[in-house]
């Protein structure tokens, strides 16, 4: 089947231009100057719309077990919601907890995703226990399983935590096999002391989740990770869910020195704050408990994060989508903030929320497309199959309407959540049509996709390194 996407403005990392896009089967066949494409084919009218590569959300947690419950989106519900929001690929995290086997963990995640996804998907691997066996498994995953990035944790002792020696060993292994180390950079040992002290003072409300995870401890861990990566032989390092100015400054310094050091942020850190959301009255703030935490609006974090996106000190915006319902799930932490499952759901809203940054003059059109699609593809070994509108690439394409309007609400979202972290927020733009490997899966709000359409994407090594 062929179709011509006609009359739109294609946006890539090098800028917008008028072009018609010919799709044949699952891939992009050609780009034509306006009006010069074939006439004997189905036409999708893109007049007045941006034609962008499908979004790639490089950080999601469908069905993640956490704190005695599971993230409320399955691979079925979560990838369908992602599609509605213009995301056509997710990279989720398969999990090895401390004491478990890496290959078993990866197999378990394949079991959850296989046949259930509406869009294409890939995996990073969480290494929760660095030892001889898991180090060997890292090689096998890179070579045979299409998993070329490994997440380590400087927080959550006893569950995911790695000490500095373990981190160094995993980084040395990654240096050998060419993979990327992703880091949850918070000093969890110090944070756990602050949590116990707060609880013993009777400080149990959700806001204390944020107050016991100060930005200094994100910055300290970020700096330590950067140093360890250098000692390991300049292992490529990618710091996830960055929320603090001081941590971003450490990334900028390493990048100025020419290091392969990268970071992502998430929409929640660009739009939400410690005071307005996490500090909401009563237990309401539990909706916004995530780690790293939302930061104070009285400090420079949000302004610096937007600036970092413009300057490419922040390379990518992912969601860290990890939804929990308020009822029965977030409520596990009633009377004790440390028992609130950590996570915010947002896989459906990332493309819109970052487009609002364009409307607000905080981001260029080019950086919008780079941070949500092109750079994730390059960073994580999916380029040029994904992340770009070019002949030979998968036909993952979003028609985005800059004249449309989106109101984010639990009433209209498709995620399996009983609330929205962004309730009532207005976006001056709208996802119009979503195409995944040549199939139209969303058209003007109507769902045309199906469970099982999404395929596993084995990834190569990063093509973003200098
Ligand atoms: Zn994390
Ligand atoms: Zn995460």
Structure write-up:
Helix content is 31%, strand content 22%. The strands form 5 sheets. It has an 8-stranded parallel β-sheet with strand order 8-11-12-13-14-15-16-17. It has a 7-stranded mixed β-sheet with strand order 3-2-7-18-21-22-23. A 4-stranded mixed β-sheet has the order 5-4-1-6, with no helix packed on it. It has helices at residues 75-84, 102-113, 132-145, 164-177, 188-200, 207-211, 215-231, 245-256, 267-271, 274-278, 301-311, 350-359, 365-379; strands at 2-6, 9-12, 15-18, 20-24, 27-32, 42-45, 50-53, 55-60, 65-66, 69-70, 87-96, 120-127, 149-153, 180-184, 237-239, 261-265, 316-317, 397-401, 406-407, 426-427, 430-436, 439-443, 446-447. The longest helix has 17 residues, at 215-231. The chain is of the alpha/beta class. A hairpin with a 2-residue loop joins β21 and β22. The structure holds zinc ion (ZN) (2 copies).
């Amino acid at each position: 089947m062929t179709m011509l996407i006609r009359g739109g403005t294609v946006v890539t990392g090098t800028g917008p231009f008028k072009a018609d896009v010919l799709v044949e089967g699952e891939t992009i066949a050609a780009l034509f100057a306006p009006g010069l494409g074939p006439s004997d084919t189905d036409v999708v009218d893109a007049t007045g719309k941006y034609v962008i590569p499908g979004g790639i959300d490089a950080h999601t947690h469908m069905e993640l077990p956490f704190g005695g419950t599971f993230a409320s989106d399955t691979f079925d519900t979560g990838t369908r919601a992602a599609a509605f929001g213009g995301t056509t690929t997710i990279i989720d995290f398969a999990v090895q907890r401390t004491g478990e086997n890496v290959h078993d963990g990866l197999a378990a995640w394949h079991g959850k995703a296989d046949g259930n996804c509406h869009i294409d998907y890939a995996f990073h691997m969480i290494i929760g226990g660095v030892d001889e066996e898991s180090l060997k498994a890292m090689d096998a995953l890179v070579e045979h399983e299409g998993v070329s990035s490994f997440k380590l944790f400087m927080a959550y002792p006893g569950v995911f935590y790695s000490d500095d020696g373990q981190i160094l060993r995993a980084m040395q292994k990654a240096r050998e096999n060419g993979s990327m180390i992703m880091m949850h950079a918070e000093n969890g040992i110090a944070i756990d002391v602050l949590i116990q002290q707060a609880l013993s003072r009777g400080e149990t409300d959700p806001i204390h989740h944020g107050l016991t995870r100060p930005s200094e401890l994100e910055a300290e861990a970020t700096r330590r990770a950067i140093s360890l990566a250098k000692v390991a032989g300049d292992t490529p390092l990618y710091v996830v869910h960055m929320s603090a100015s001081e941590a971003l400054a450490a990334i900028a310094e390493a990048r100025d020195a020419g290091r392969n050091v990268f970071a992502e942020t998430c929409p929640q850190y660009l739009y939400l704050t410690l005071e307005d959301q996490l500090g909401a009255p009563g237990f309401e703030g539990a909706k916004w408990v995530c780690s790293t935490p939302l930061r104070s609006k009285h400090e420079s974090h949000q302004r610096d994060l937007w600036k970092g996106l413009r300057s490419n000190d922040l390379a990518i915006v992912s969601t860290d989508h990890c939804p929990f319902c308020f009822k029965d799930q977030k409520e596990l932490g009633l009377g004790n903030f440390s028992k609130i499952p950590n996570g915010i759901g947002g896989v459906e809203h990332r493309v819109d929320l970052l487009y609002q940054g364009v409307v607000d003059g905080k981001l260029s059109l080019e950086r919008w497309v780079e941070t949500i699609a092109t750079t994730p593809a390059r960073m994580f070994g999916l380029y040029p199959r994904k992340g770009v509108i070019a002949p030979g690439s998968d036909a993952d394409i979003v028609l985005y309407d800059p004249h449309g309007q989106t109101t984010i609400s639990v009433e209209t979202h498709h995620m399996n959540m009983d609330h929205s972290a962004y309730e009532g927020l207005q976006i001056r733009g709208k996802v119009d049509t979503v195409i995944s490997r040549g199939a139209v899966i969303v058209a003007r709000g109507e769902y045309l996709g199906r469970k099982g359409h999404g395929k596993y994407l084995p990834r190569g090594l990063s093509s973003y390194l200098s």
